[in-house]
Structures are given as C-alpha cells and as structure tokens.
Amino acid sequence: MALQRLLASGAAALRRSQGDAGLAPALLRTYATTQITVRDALNTAMDEEMARDETVFIMGEEVAEYQGAYKITRGLLQKYGPKRVRDTPITEAGFTGIGVGAAFAGLRPIVEFMTFNFSMQAIDQIVNSAAKHLYMSAGQVTCPVVFRGANGAAAGVAAQHSQCFAAWYASVPGLKVLAPYDSEDARGLLKAAIRDPDPVVFLENEILYGEPFPVSEAVLDKDFTVPIGKAKVMRAGSDVTLVAFGKMVGYCLKAAELLEAEGVSAEVVNLRTLKPIDRNTIAASVRKTHRVVSVEEGWPQHGVGAEIMAIAIEDCFDELDAPPERVTGAEVPMPYAQNLEAAALPQDFLAWWHLLVFVEGAIYQADEENEAAASRGGGDGGGEPGSACLEAVAAVLRSRGLLTPGVQAELDAGRRYWAAERRLCGLMGRSPCVPPGGHAGSCGFTLEEALGASALKSFDYRLLHHLVYALRKEQPDPALLAFLQVDEQLVDLGDDLLDYEDDITAGDSQDCGDGAGGSAGGSGSGEGGSEVGGAGGSFNLLRCYVHIFGQEAPLHIVQRIGALEARRDELLAVLPEVQRQHVQRRQVEAADEGEGALRWQIPPLVLDEAAFRRQFAD
C-alpha cells in the first residue's frame, strides 16, 4: 500500500489528462506498467463493453449529467448519449424493475445503486424477478443484468449506509455475486459480469475507488476478463490460509507481510467470486497450510466466513491442525461515532504490530535488567537498570508523535516501580529487617510505600492502552484507565497471596524467595544476593512484605484489597454500559474457568498462618 501511494502521482496525472471523454484505451496503455485506480478500471471496463455491444446500457441515480456519485460513469454520457446512459428518479424499485424487464427483452443493462443499502428498496425485483425467472421459465428466458455499486462500510455514514450485502445476495439461487479487490479484479470481473447471461450482483467498495493498483498489458486488453467462480491466490504460504474478499484482501496481505517477519508463512486467497464460490481453491490451500482464517466486514452469524468454515470442515477436516477461525464485523448496526465504527469493523491493528511488539519487548528487557539488579540485593551496579531500554522506547514513540502525556506518565511509573523493587530487595538482605521493638518504618521503607509499589506494577499494561489510543488518534478514557489500574492491582495482590500459599504447600516454609534469605516471618540468616521470587522466579511483593514487615503484612494486604474492591465497584459503575457488560461477562467466565471467585476471599494462610503451616508440616 505504501508503494501504491508513492506511485499515485502518476495515476493523478492520468486522471487530469483524460478530460470529459473517459479513459481512452491508448492513453490507458501508456500507464500499463504503472498503476490505475479501481475507479478508472471500472470506468474503462464499462466504456469498452458499451463500445463492443450496443445492447449494453447503464442506468441509475446521477449516472449521466453528474457522471456518477463516485464518478465511475465519468465521460460515458458524452460518448454514448442519454439513451444508453440514463439518469433515473430516486426510486430503486422502479428503475431496477425497468432494468430487469429490459434484460428479459434482450438488452444488457447495468443498474447502478448509489449504495447497495438502497438495493433493499428493490430486493423484490432482484430476488423474485431477476434471480428466479430462468428457473420459472424452464430456462427459456435469461436475465443478463448487472447490479453494481458501493457495498459495506465507508466512513461515518452510519447504520443505514454501511451494511455488507455479500451474505444476503450470495444466499440466493440464480444470482452470481462478485466482489473485486484491486484494479485487475474490477476491470476483469465487471467485463465478465456484463457478458454473462445471468443476473450478477457486483459489490464494490467506496474506500477502494481511489486506490491505485499496478496492472499488466494483459489486463488492459479489450477482451481481458476474470473468470467468474475462480478465486486467486494473491500470496503463497505454508503455515496458514487467510481468505477474504474486497477491501479485506488488503488487510490480509498486510497481515501476511507482518507474519512473515515473525516466521509465519501465510497464504492469501482473494475469493473474487462469492457465488458460485471457488471451493476447490479454498480446500487446496487449507490442505497445504492446515489452518484457515476468514476475514470479512459483514456480521458474524450466517456470513461468508461461515461458508468458508463449512468448506474447511467438510472438505479438509482431517487436514486441519487447528480450528478454523473467523474475523468479522461486530453483531451490531454500524455506529456513527468514529471510535465505535472502528470497533465494529475488522481493524487494521496488525499495522501496529511491530511497534507494539518493540515496546513490550523493550519493557521486558528493562524488567530483566532490574530483576538482575534486585537479585544482587538491590544494587544498581552503576546507573539505573533498564534506563537505556526505556529511553529507546521514548525516542521511537517521540519520532512518531506517539509520546503522549499518558504514555510518558506510564514510562515514569515503570521507573518508580523498579526503583521500589530494588529497594525492597535490598532490605531483603537484612536480618532482622524490623528490629525487636521497632516498627516498619525503622527499615527506611513503610508498608504503605511498599503497597504503593503494587499500584505501579501494571504500568506496562496501561502504557499499551495509552499507546493504542494514540495510534487510533483517540483521547484515552480516564474512567477505563482508572478501572484498569485498580483491577490489575487487585489481580497482582491476589496472585502474590496465592503464590505465597503455594510456596508453603510445597514445603518452602523457610525461604521468602528463591534463596533470598530469611524466613517468611521476618527472621533467619538473611544473606541476600539471590533472585527474589518463588518457584517460578518471579518477583513477589508479599514475600518481601512478610520478611520486612512481619506477620501483620498479609492482613494489611487484605485490608488494602478490601479498599481496592470498593474502589473497583465505584469505577465499574461509571463505565459505559458496553464496557461494564464486558467486564462483568469476563468475571463470570474467569470464575467458570477456575481462575478465581468474583469477589476476594481471605485465604486460610492470612487468617492463621501458623495453623496453615502446621497443616503441611508433616
């Protein structure tokens, strides 16, 4: 796509030079080795077919004097006159019926809908007249009509102008349904549709009209057509098959490029024809890659993707290494708000994949450097561990205009968390940490300060949320981010308590970490200098709290959890309804999966640790 934008200047020059006469074939051939837009491909296809066959004509709203709502019919009125390029009133049922009747009489009409959403006004003519007449006449009367226009989501045109009708029409016997992606598809498929003896639904995409694509000399030939019913493998691969049509083919090609960088070889199948669907090409690809993902803008239930899944299951069940997957639009009418519209469609999220992986990888590297410093008892060893990683992240994000205040605040939170982690690990090397008769503050670090570290621990999770908001050019939702911070803190504290309990049940009753020194109760040799963590080697705040602050620490943590749960409920109540329902649904799923109860329950370890330890002493 980047290359196409770089070459768009040539296509723009071509469009400026054409005047009112449409794209002349000779001029088009001059640019055969560069690019033409989908709009120009459709325009030249109709131009050449109208010149080739006098029975071909076009009709629809604003197709003549205005030259089409999207300028697809540009120059055709001047070349072929008002009898063959006919403006119609705003009555889809009426002019569609005229088109169907003309096809019955031996003409080849092209009926343009300004958007396929308006075809709902004419669906009786399309389904009950055009699609069924060959059957009802015992094959005596054909209906060579093309219904074409913009289909699917555009930008900010809301619920009644953004529907994808692919699955609607592809379910109707008697119709052929085509969905082009690039200029070659648009030119070759439209020519084939005009020449076909059956009614054809031709689903274009408004967003693609202005996109330039490279074409060959063969595509520019007047007799070039793309066979109806034949898919095209756009990119060969061996690990997974991505199947799509229309605009989503571009998304799949981008995804394949990014997956290749991750060592995954993706094959991309451009359906081109939705009915009759090319079952053989799909099945052959799935048998080769053993995995399949379908991508479409339409709704999930009973969509085109469901048909792809059926083919994969019926024809390739024994060849599958993983369940087939669908990527679809959301099960909602298209919202008008920009952020909700983006959330309702398959998102070009993979375009951000490398950046997000880089940021997360740098944070993990910084975390490892800090854990290494912590394992030395908190010593920094000169400089701040991980600072070079965070500075690299900041530099990259700043260069892309993504270092927002929210992102910067979370990077700073990470530094504060790691500093607290190193201080706690340094205190782990002292024995006893709290002198007899002393208090928690005697060690230079209060329990409240230590608990505050848990609020910073999930900074990376919040940072990625801020970054995604910035990438989508949206303002962060403060309520959601506040909720996430409290929710993640609850998860971290709860996990630390459960991990500590697992240590004891495993017989690790004397070590508060992996050889970190000292007992869990705050006494012992305390030699320090080892990695702080349990059996998994992860940093566990509870082990530090117990060792440093004594046996009252778990009770303090439980009190903190109670306060956090109350705050969590407050924040949940002010979230938008959709987000609140999602959180509540995830809570129930987590409980069903055994990941935890909906509310925190004080474990026996905290109620009476001595009794809990005696239970496992034998």
What's the SSE blueprint?
Elements lengths: L1 H5 L1 H10 L7 H6 L4 E3 H15 L3 E5 L15 H5 L4 E3 L4 H13 L3 E6 L9 H8 L2 H4 L9 E5 L15 H5 L5 E3 L4 H13 L4 E5 L7 E3 L17 E4 L4 E5 L3 H14 L4 E5 L2 E3 L3 H11 L2 E4 L8 H13 L8 E3 L10 H6 L9 H23 L11 H13 L5 H24 L18 H10 L2 H13 L6 H28 L35 H9 L3 H22 L2 H16 L11 H4 L1 H7 L3
Parallel strand pairs: 2-3, 2-4, 4-5, 5-7, 6-7, 10-11, 10-13, 13-14
Antiparallel strand pairs: 1-8, 6-12, 9-11
Helix pairs in contact: 4-10, 6-7, 12-13, 15-16, 15-17, 17-18, 17-19, 17-21, 20-22
Could you characterize what this model shows?
There is one protein chain. With 618 residues, the chain is α/β, with parallel strands linked by helices. The chain folds into three domains: 213 residues, Rossmann fold (3-Layer(aba) Sandwich); 105 residues, Rossmann fold, CATH 3.40.50; 266 residues, no CATH class. 48% of the residues lie in helices and 9% in strands. The protein has 25 helices and 14 strands. The strands form three sheets. It has a seven-stranded mixed sheet with strand order 3-2-4-5-7-6-12, with helices on both faces. It has a five-stranded mixed sheet with strand order 9-11-10-13-14, sandwiched between helices. Strand 10, helix 11 and strand 11 form a beta-alpha-beta unit. Helix 12 crosses helix 13 and helix 20 packs antiparallel against helix 22. The longest helix has 28 residues.
